[in-house]
Amino acid sequence: DDKVDIAMRVISDHLRAVSFSIADGQLPSNSGAGYVIRRILRRAIRYSFTFLNIKEPMLYKLFGSLLLKMGGFYPELKSQRTLIENVIKEEENSFLRTLDQGLVLLDEIISSSKNNLVSGQKAFELYDTYGFPVDLTSLILEEKGFKLDTKSFNKELEKQKDRSRKAGEVSFDDWKVIIDDPVQEFIGYDSLESNIKIVKYRKINSKKDGIIFQLVFNLTSFYAESGGQVGDIGLIESNDGDVVHILDTVKEGNLTVHIVKNLPKKLDQIFRAVVDKKNRFKIQCNHTATHLLHQALKQVLGNHVEQKGSRVSSESLRFDLSHFSKLSQDEILKVENFVNSRIENSLKLEESRNVPLKEALEKGAIGLFGEKYGDVVRTIKFGSSYELCGGTHVKNTSELWQFKIINEGAIASGIRRIEAITYDSVKDYYNSKIEEYNQIKSLLKNSKNLPESVSSLSNENLSLRKEIDTLTNEKVVQIKNTIVKNLKSYSGVNIYSSLIQLKPSKIKDLCFSVGAEINNLFLIVISQENNKVFCSCFISKNLVSEKNLNASDVVRKLGELINGKGGGQPFYATCAGNNNSDLDKLISSAEDIHKQLIS
């Protein structure tokens, strides 16, 4: 079979591309290069799903075959095997859930279509909101005797592209050269102040930031964003008192570019450039903590831990690592204690510049996996922590004061993210926790044993919830009996519509409970909660096919009366709205819908 043969070739080719990308440090995501990896992987899953009829994760199992063929030439495949297999498996699970959900929604779209041409707007919603591939939509529609309105789909797609283009529109003026000086020197490791000249500048107009300017100096103390560390902020000042604030510093090729909102009044003069010292110091604290954290994670969790990304700012640090389970409270405490012990030991910074890469690696310096380094590198050492790094650091670990992890969670399969703080952010954190503690203490009437009081309240709350659930279930049975007793038969269909006093979350259980007992049921239930109106419709599945009834159509009609929206499946659907001004009219309309549709 040609289609099966093509599918197998697509799967093997895409698996190879994705595996090497993950081994190089690029994980699937919703933006940038990660989005390309996700699209490639999902295309392979789609081919196995559509042409090989495989409905469960399978691609990750094929990685072993790839390893046998290419592992000898590319050792990184072997060293990263666990990560690669876990990432692919999780992506497969996620996308297969999307496909399952999409198939249900597609069935609803088909059942609500008035002819054999399916709306492109609905197919686009399936594609845009749920990630359901449009080519798969087309294929399924053809199999069921339907056709996709590709013209309206492409129109919606073009609208989306246009919105994205407008949101990200940026126009760059040409560089205006003031001094012909192609060499730019960075002196920010040693000095935070310098006398500079503006070499060139240009204007940028963006939808997001409005009009800004980029300045290039002949030399700079400002660190440009790179290696996960944010760019410096500060100011430049002329002799006549003209001050311009540097809002950010970024890299553009080999240039360090300074972002400002306004230009100096006179460009061709000498300025005093000053980096914001407090902001730089807090960044340095967090960057040094990132190195200590990396070492701590390897020590506590194991040598399999690899840094997969980081973000270092003045407020906090973020560290992404390869690890396959949630860190326990005990592990988090051990990591914190490890870092804090290094802070207490007052380890001095040992910095080396222009070290040959080979020499640095031979001495044990750790580089970020997948990062491209030049022939010579800069190394940063605090005690036994030894890394390749171009960022800025404190002179002594004691300057960090303290290290505290404030959050830990998963961001992708096999990838965890830790957020942490140092220096005065830790003081602010503890002060806020003390304030919370005092508030809780006040609410608990100054209880001397807070944990015991909270535990007692929690147990009492659980007991009350159980009582409420019991009473609610009893009420569901009572309402069910009332519905069964008051059913009307119309053209062989058991119908009922009424306003009932029951939480919306329990109405589905009620409807399905009545439906399990009564055949040929067409039920419309209306309820209220928090000034909102809820409409639910249940139709026995045999009526859906025999009388061409659709619960989604019913709730859409009712939704028009309450300014609400909703949907669901042909046999059960719900909607909610905020117009509760005329419930009698709503109930009357429900009764009319019963008779109109059955007739």
- Would you report the number of β strands? 26
> Overall 3D geometry?
globular
Determine the strand fraction and express it as a percent band. Answer: 15-25%
Major beta sheet summary: 9 strands, antiparallel
Low-confidence stretches: none
Radius of gyration: 32 Å
What oligomeric state do the depicted chains represent? Answer: single chain
SSE class: alpha+beta
Helix count equals 17
Helix content: 40-55%
Q: Span between N and C termini?
A: 49 Å
Query: What is the average of the pLDDT values?
Result: 90
How many domains make up the 3D coordinates? 4
What can be said about this structure in brief?
This protein is α+β, with helices and mostly antiparallel strands.
Q: What secondary-structure arrangement, pairings included, does this model have?
A:
Layout: H1 2-23, H2 32-51, H3 59-70, H4 75-79, H5 81-112, E1 117-118, H6 120-130, H7 134-143, E2 147-148, H8 150-167, E3 170-172, E4 176-177, E5 185-186, E6 193-206, E7 210-217, E8 219-220, E9 234-238, E10 243-246, E11 248-252, E12 255-260, E13 270-275, H9 277-301, E14 307-312, E15 317-322, H10 329-344, E16 349-356, H11 357-362, E17 376-382, E18 385-388, E19 403-412, E20 415-422, H12 423-443, H13 450-485, E21 488-490, E22 493-499, H14 504-517, E23 521-529, E24 532-539, H15 541-546, H16 551-561, E25 565-569, E26 572-577, H17 583-598
Parallel strand pairs: 1-2, 5-8, 22-23
Antiparallel strand pairs: 3-6, 4-6, 6-7, 6-13, 7-12, 9-10, 9-13, 11-12, 14-15, 15-20, 16-17, 17-18, 19-20, 21-22, 23-24, 24-26, 25-26
Helix pairs in contact: 1-2, 1-3, 1-5, 2-5, 3-5, 5-6, 6-8, 9-10, 13-14
